Automatic annotation (TrEMBL):
This is Amidohydrolase family protein. It comes from the Bacteria. It comes from Paenibacillus residui. InterPro entries: Amidohydro-rel (IPR006680), Metal_Hydrolase (IPR032466). SUPFAM superfamilies: Metallo-dependent hydrolases. Residues 65-284 form the Amidohydrolase-related domain.
């Protein structure tokens, strides 16, 4: 069995038919289908060619699209929804979606705010009460060479703000994702200079330290950031996956197969692969 814990509806031109065909092609049994609710001023306009709802106030990837997929293929999708916690009705909207649509995940949270914002903490605690894991995207601000409208697009306020949130809400499960999280697999200083650090993983990485300190923290290896974090130092990656096998989950955030290819190339024990591919996801969201 394989569960993809991170993907989006109508993302990069994949409609429902193409999405289901793609899952079948790569032997994926279920997908956590995540919304992305974010003001248009807070994401790179380059995304407009890849997202389904750039003009909607609840875009760029609306929860309505997630719900429509679930309605048409109920056995294939687990619903995620992340209303902006800065809005006064965020908890009410999430509570309604839990009761009406059976939402199981708060995600993807990808906003230009500090993730230990008091409003966000209140929402995380609500998620803890309801048993919803919180999946976050973290990016740092650094100059990518773009001149308009911004040099880069930060999300979450860095690993420090995220760690404070994880620490403040011990009853809530958090799932780390994206460049600003995975760069901290290493103790080097590349995390705020490039989205995809290179070279051997150095001691002192915050990801490992946080996993040891906070039992409510899990990891999502999706996207180029997760794949790069493991591929940059394969010897370290194998031991990392073995050491933290109970809290690492397979995800894609796209429609290729690079994560499976990487995992299969590391000669991991089947017991470890099974946990990463599906058992840890089922532990958080039993079926």
């Amino acid at each position: 069995m394989i569960i993809d814990v991170h993907n989006h509806p109508d993302w990069y031109g994949y409609n429902l038919e193409r999405f289901l065909d793609n899952m079948k092609q790569y032997n994926i049994d279920k997908t956590w289908l995540l919304s992305w609710e974010c003001p248009a001023t807070e994401y790179n306009p380059e995304y407009i060619k890849h997202i389904p709802d750039p003009d909607k106030p609840n875009g760029p990837i609306s929860f309505e699209r997630c719900a429509a997929y679930k309605e048409q293929a109920p056995d294939k999708f687990i619903l995620g929804y992340a209303p902006d916690p800065r809005l006064p009705d965020a908890i009410d909207k999430l509570d309604h979606a839990i009761r009406l649509y059976d939402v199981k995940v708060y995600g993807e949270l990808k906003l230009r705010m500090m993730y230990d914002n008091p409003d966000a903490l209140r929402l995380y605690r609500f998620c803890g009460e309801k048993g919803l894991p919180v999946l976050v995207h973290i990016d740092y601000e650094f100059d990518t060479g773009s001149t308009y409208p911004r040099p880069n697009w930060w999300y979450g306020g860095g690993i420090g703000a995220f760690e404070r949130a994880v620490q403040a809400c011990p009853e809530t499960v958090f799932i780390g994702h994206a460049p600003g999280f995975w760069a901290h697999i290493s103790g080097d200083d590349q995390y705020n200079k490039t989205a995809y650090p290179t070279g051997p993983v150095l001691p002192g990485g915050r990801v490992s330290e946080m996993l040891r300190s906070y039992p409510n923290l899990y990891c999502d290896i999706s996207a180029g950031s997760g794949c790069n974090a493991l591929a940059r130092d394969r010897e370290f990656a194998k031991q990392f996956l073995i050491d933290f096998q109970d809290r690492i989950m397979y995800g894609r955030d796209y429609f290729d197969n690079v994560h499976q290819q990487l995992l299969e190339s590391l000669d991991l024990p089947k017991t470890v692969l099974d946990k990463i591919y599906y058992q840890n996801a089922l532990k958080l969201i039993p079926e």
